[in-house]
Design brief:
single chain; about 325 residues; about 70% helix; extended
């Protein structure tokens, strides 16, 4: 039994190291939050006082104790979450852990990384470019494509919030509008209608929405523009419809990428069969021709240009 356990530990050494490191980080983060919450609670339970001296030249009218401790913690003033409440701290940690997923799924990152993965598979270059390079390309292309949206969020939400002109809830509401408009521009009517039918949701025309006589909108009309309905559509419907639309568009572009490389494979395989070289792998011979074809047509520029122009901005 010991030998079996020892062998399992040796074979999965990296997995055990990652597990214990992740466990240690989680425990340290949890303890830090607990200590921070206890410290804030203790500070709120023992408010400090200060002395304000009356008169112009000293304490002419006596000393007045004034409570200078705030009713809310600094974290509450910043993001609206009270650090003295463990439940709210847990919610905050959960949201921070899901932030990368939001970055990936609510932007153009999904379509870009899928298309680049299809390109690598079509060329059959194994792990070239490596995953980290593809992820970096997708990340910077996402920043390039989403920059107008981020700039609008900064101008309409973050800058007024940093200046103290609006509250946290209003800043979040303003930041969601440009992002929702971007997602609606990329979402097809079929996918939006599919999720609306699943939730039994009714959409009304912009002219009649909010009036006594509301007219139901017809999403079967291909000329309908979804961004005109951003006030009626919530994120619970927009996000899944946007994700499915992105997956559909990415697979369509991937199919188109496979066609020229498939032609090269067919030509090489037919040539080898006619020459009687059946034992020679066609993929080994076709790979240099695929790379040559991709370089000659300036493939990277074509791929990046197609990806950028495929988004409705």
């Amino acid at each position: 039994m010991r030998s079996v356990l020892k062998t399992a530990v040796q074979q999965n050494k990296k997995l055990f190291v990652r597990f214990f490191v992740s466990l240690g980080v989680c425990i340290a983060l949890f303890l830090t939050c607990c200590i921070f919450s206890v410290a804030v609670s203790a500070q709120e339970g023992n408010p400090e006082t200060s002395i304000i001296e009356g008169g112009e030249n000293g304490a002419e009218e006596g000393d007045i104790p004034v409570d200078v401790s705030g009713g809310n913690s600094a974290l509450y003033e910043l993001i609206g979450i009270d650090a003295s409440e463990p439940i709210q701290v847990i919610i905050l940690i959960t949201l921070l852990s899901l932030a990368p997923s939001f970055m990936i799924m609510l932007t153009s990152f999904t379509r870009i990384i899928i298309v680049l993965s299809f390109l690598r598979n079509a060329m059959q270059t194994q792990s070239t470019p490596p995953n980290i390079v593809l992820t970096g390309i997708a990340l910077f292309l996402t920043i390039f494509i989403m920059w107008p949206v981020f700039a609008e969020i900064n101008d309409t939400a973050y800058a007024p919030y940093a200046a103290g002109e609006i509250s946290t809830s209003e800043a979040i509401d303003r930041a969601g509008k440009p992002l929702k408009t971007f997602m609606l521009k990329q979402t097809s009517n079929d996918n939006m209608r599919f999720f609306m039918e699943l939730q039994d949701y009714t959409l009304y025309t912009p002219e009649s929405y909010g009036t006594d006589e509301q007219v139901e909108a017809n999403l079967n009309d291909p000329e309908i523009t979804l961004e005109n309905y951003h006030e009626q559509l919530g994120f619970e419907i927009v996000i899944p419809a946007f994700i499915v639309s992105e997956l559909t568009r990415a697979f369509q572009m991937g199919f188109m990428l496979f066609i020229p490389f498939l032609v090269v494979d067919l030509v090489v395989a037919s040539t080898l069969m006619s020459m009687g070289m059946m034992m020679l792998p066609p993929a080994m011979i076709s790979l240099p021709f695929k790379i040559l074809l991709f370089v000659m047509v300036d493939g990277w520029q074509m791929i990046v240009g197609s990806l950028v122009t495929s988004f409705n901005l």
